[in-house]
Every structure is written in structure tokens, then in C-alpha cells.
Amino acid sequence: MDEKQHKLSRRRLIAGGATAGVALPLVHQFVPHNGAHRALEGAEAATDHSEHGAAQALHGGGNAGPTFRMGATVDHGANGFNPTEILRDFDWGKTTRLASGRVLREWTLVAGDREIEVAPGVKYPAWTYNGRVPGPTLRCREGELLRIRFVNASEHPHTIHFHGLHPAEMDGVPGMGAGLVPSGGETTYSFDAEPFGVHLYHCHAGPLAEHIARGLYGAFIVDPKQGRADADEQVMVMNGFNTNFDAEGNQVYAVNTVAFHYVNEPIAVERATPVRIYLVNVLEYDPINSFHIHANFFDYYPTGTRLEPSEFTDTVVQGQAQRGILELEFPYDGDYMFHAHKTEFAELGWMGLFRVGGDNLQDASKKAAYCDVAELEERPA
Ligand SMILES: [Cu+2]
After folding, report:
1. DSSP H or E stretch at residue 3
2. Distance of CA 216 from the midpoint of ligand 1 (Å)
3. Ligand 1 geometric centre to CA of 265 (Å)
4. What residue spans of 155-260 are helical by DSSP H?
């Protein structure tokens, strides 16, 4: 394709949401091959705001700047959820003690249809659990009895399929137990909380790929009986949006739905303090996803089902429905990127920053102190 055509396509991706409410009519293959992103709206904004430091300057998207407009953010109010809140929002449900002494933990999940903004100006007609994507992070403790009332307020039939150990009739798939729950219908899933680990739930109606891709999924965490050590706990659901509905890859990638959200609002963490990330990959239409942290390493517990880590690394790869727990501490203050090390995904939104130790490194004078080499003394070689 020629450059003009190329640029037009990219512009449609970036600004297309201005036409709002409809899927973006762009051709997927234009996206991954656009290595040298031109000085579109985004790059200009990044240049304008360069004095604000790393959050803007380190953005993906090639030399000229980001893929999406920098400085712009989505309307979290209209979306009805904010990824900064989703990050540390664990839904423990409502508990009662049964006569046997056992804990019964209950939730209600309501499926619905809702347009959400997944990148600045990019609207997507999502299907949601409890009005958000990802759905609520359901959290419980090993051995409890769980009961999930599912109400289908969407116009389409859906289910909830949980990963975990349970009888076939509680599996949330068509043709078994309650099977497909029609629009306006409801059912209740009930099973034991096992095994401990980080799991997920998602709709299992067909066509399955679309029912997942539209947003019907969430993290499901079962704590070990003895609990886990104190940490700054976070949940990251890696997802994407096939905004042109061709079922070939995605045009927007993210953790917790909104492209570049944690670049615009870095995740504040304390130095030398344990951080535990429950990482889940639900990405549809792409075979793999990954998580990479800069300038640090983490202990990795695949599926979180063992108490000893399998690996000490800075990068982990997950296929769809793979998940795990990452434990790490940040030894130094500053801003540290994390992103898919499938760099195509990073440039299309799957990127964020941890901000360690507050805003001190965003002070422009401090930055100049170590960036400016002009005043260094000359010395003989
Ligand atoms: Cu569904």
C-alpha cells in the first residue's frame, strides 16, 4: 500500500471513534506492519508534553510516538468502570456460615450489552458481566461452598463457565445442567472452591470466540486455606478488541481493557514492598500473549496452584486461559514499564508503568540533572 493510504488507515484507527458507536472499519493487516508510526495526533501530543517525562516519552509506537493519542483518555464515567480501580478490586461476595460450620460465599453476576470506550475515541459494543470488562474479580478461600446466581439481561443467550473442580452440571456449557441461559433467564451455579490458585470464568455460548472476545470473562481467585503473605495485590486480565469483527487478531490490546491506561495513570507502588500480580490471559484471536517487566525480575507461580515458584524471570508467555501469580519488589524509585513482549501488542495498547516511590522522578529538574551531559568537564582519553 502507498504511504498515503497507510496513513489514512492509521488515522481512522486513531480518530475513528469520533464517528462513535460503530466498529472501526479498518483492515487488520494495516496495523501490525505499521512500524514507523507517523506524526499523527498522538505523536504531536507526546512532543507537546515531553517535559512531563517518562510516561509520555517512553510510549510505544516507534520513533515518532504512540499509536493512540497521548494525553487523551477514555471516559471512565461513561464506561462505568476504571482500570485503576479494577486493578485492586477483589469481590469477596457475601458470606454466611452454614450449620456445618462451613462458609457459603455468594455473588450475583448480570450479563448485559454495553458500549465501552477501549482506547481514546474507540468505542466497542461489548457484552459484560456486571457492566464491566473484565467482569468482577471473584475471590474466595479454598474449601468454601460457592454459589453464583447468574442473571442474563443481555439480548443474547450466555452462560458462565468456571475453571476449577466441579460436577458436569455446574460447568456452564450448552447442553449440560442449566445449559444456555436465554435472554431474560437466570440460573445458579454452585460448587466447592478448589483448587487454590488464580483461575478465570467466561461465557461458553457459541460462537465461543465471539462470546469471549466481546468481554464476558473475569478472574477467579481461590486463596489457599492458610492465605498468602501480605502484599500489594493486583489483578491484570490481558485482553484485546477485534474492533473490525473479522476474527483475525485484534486492533486494540490492553490489560484490564483500556489501551495504555496504566501509561496515562501509572500504577503507584512502594519501594521494597511485596507486590503480587494475578495475571490472566483471555486474549481471543491471537495464539499467545506475554508479560514483561523492565529493570526487575519476579517469582512466577503458574496457575498459582503451588506455593513454590517455578521460575525467576522477567518475561512470561501465556496462551488463552493460562494464568499465574507474579511476586516481586521494586528496589529503586522511578517509573518502570511493563508490557507484552509481543511488541505489536505493546504498540497497540498493552503497555503500562509502575511508579515506584511517588512522583519525584517526574520532577523536570531532576531529570535534567542526569540527562544533560553538556556541562561535563573534558578530560584526556
Ligand atoms: Cu455469551
Report:
1. helix 3-15
2. 6
3. 31
4. 208-213
Distance CA 34, CA 16 (A): 17
CA of 158 to the centre of ligand 1 (A): 4
Residue range 232-356 in CATH 3.40.190.120: no
3-state secondary structure of 122: strand
According to the CATH classification, is domain 86-223 in 2.60.40.420? yes
Q: How far is the CA of 212 from the centre of ligand 1 (A)?
A: 7
Domain spans, the chain: 3-64, 86-223, 232-356
Q: What string of pLDDT tens digits covers the 381 residues of the chain?
A: 344 443 333 333 433 333 333 333 333 333 332 332 332 333 333 333 333 333 333 334 444 444 555 557 899 999 999 999 999 999 999 999 999 999 999 999 999 999 999 999 899 999 999 999 999 999 999 999 999 999 999 999 999 999 999 999 999 999 999 999 999 999 999 999 999 999 999 999 999 999 999 999 999 999 999 999 999 999 999 999 999 999 999 999 999 999 999 999 999 999 999 999 999 999 999 999 999 999 999 999 999 999 999 999 999 999 999 999 999 999 999 999 999 999 899 999 999 999 999 754 444 433 333 334 455 566 776
Instruction: Work out whether strand 137-141 and strand 90-91 pair parallel, antiparallel, or are unpaired.
Output: parallel
CATH topology match: 86-223 vs 232-356: yes
My answer on whether omega of the bond before 195 falls inside 30° of 0, hence cis, is: yes
